[in-house]
Amino acid sequence: MIPVTRSIALDESEIEESFIRASGPGGQNVNKVASAVQLRFDVRRSPSLPEAVRERLERLCGSRLTRDGVLVITAQRFRTQERNREDAVARLVELVQRAAVAPVPRRPTRPTLGSRQRRLEAKGQRAAVKRLRAEPPSE
After folding, report:
1. Cα–Cα nearest to 18, from 85, 89, 86
2. Predicted TM-score of the model (pTM)
3. Does the domain at residues 2-100 carry the CATH identifier 3.30.70.2190?
4. pLDDT, tens digit, 9 for 90 and up, residues 72-109
5. Could you give the CA distance from residue 4 to residue 97 in angstroms, rounded to a whole number?
């Protein structure tokens, strides 16, 4: 089990990892060793996630989510397979943690009397400056 929050833990059997060759610099080693990790996590069918978290996670994933609801994370930042695996799992955990935080509903507020008065005074001062810049009326 991979702990995400106090109430959410992901089962390691839900995560599927495949190893691919990393792109970019690395000399001969990059052509021989499959050090990049492609992590797949089925968001829609995961029993570990509550429904609200699942919906927020799907919105957070964006283009990393396939049509089938599978989150694909590719990690190739490091030279070793093990560090890339840790990086991919850490990124998955961070995404789920962000999805686990429910957004605070916005409470509608009204501007205070003081702020309205300050706004109108500032508008008046600005209008006065513009009036002074204008050409005097022709007779």
Report:
1. 85
2. 0.63
3. no
4. 888 888 777 788 888 888 888 888 888 888 889 999 99
5. 6
